[in-house]
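Final report, closing paragraph on structural work. Over the funding period we assembled a curated collection of sequence-structure pairs, and we close with a single example.
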Amino acid sequence: MTFIAKNRLTRRSELYRLEPYMSEHGLMMVGGRLHREWAATHDGPILLPRDHPVTTGTLIVRETHAVHAEHSGREHTFSLLRQNFGIPKCRGLLDKISKACTVCRRNNWVSMHQREALLPADRTCPGKPAFAFTG
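Its predicted structure, as stored:
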């Protein structure tokens, strides 16, 4: 956090592309091209760590997935999250949550293909020519 306050974020950091800044309330926010025009009326999305229990737990991502997006899919949930929060590598996190969600597993199941049995011997041995006996 002190790196962001002093504007010394390295280019190798995964936060560099998000252009984070510290808000007046001490929260790390996602910046961007609209930062100057937005600053007077809006705050950007709050930057949250990916592996924190508040982020991955039932408080933020799971609630957005289940309540606000109503299990509608990864991209819709991602767009709802990005309105208020900035979470690095969020798509992988949403994939992990949807795989663990019983409602999503029930709605998106893929039927298994059963292997067909072997043909009987009388169907595979050469014998009389085809159409020798008709009708």
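Residues 48-106 form one domain. The chain is about 40% helix and 5% strand. We thank the funder for supporting this effort.
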